[in-house]
Amino acid sequence: MKIYDMVELAGRNLREASLRNSLTTLGISVGVASLVAMLSLGIGLQRLFNRQLGRSGLFDSIVVSSRLDARAGGRQQVTGPSVPPKNLDDVARHSFEQIADVQEVYSLFGAVGEFRLEDSKPEDVHFTVLGGLPPSARSSEVFDDFQGHFFSAPDAPEVIIMADFARVLLELPEVRPEQKLSQEDADRLLDKSLVFRYPERSEETPVAMQSSGSSQNGDAQGSDAAGFNVVRKEQRLKIVGIVPTEPYRGLRSMGRTSVFLPIAFAESLNMIQPGDLRNIMRPGQGKTYNALLVRVGKSKNVAQVEEEIKKQGFSTFSIVDASRGLTKAFMFLDLFLGIFGSLALAVAFLGIVNTLVMAILERRREIGIMKALGASDGDVKRIFFVEAGSMGLLGGGLGVALGWLIGRVINLGTNMYLQRQEMRPENFWYVPLWLVTASLIFSVVVSLFAGLYPASRAARLDPVQALRHD
Question: What is the DSSP string of 117-165?
Answer without folding.
Answer: ETTS-TT--EEEEEEEE-GGGGGSGGGTT-EE---SSTT-SEEEEEHHH
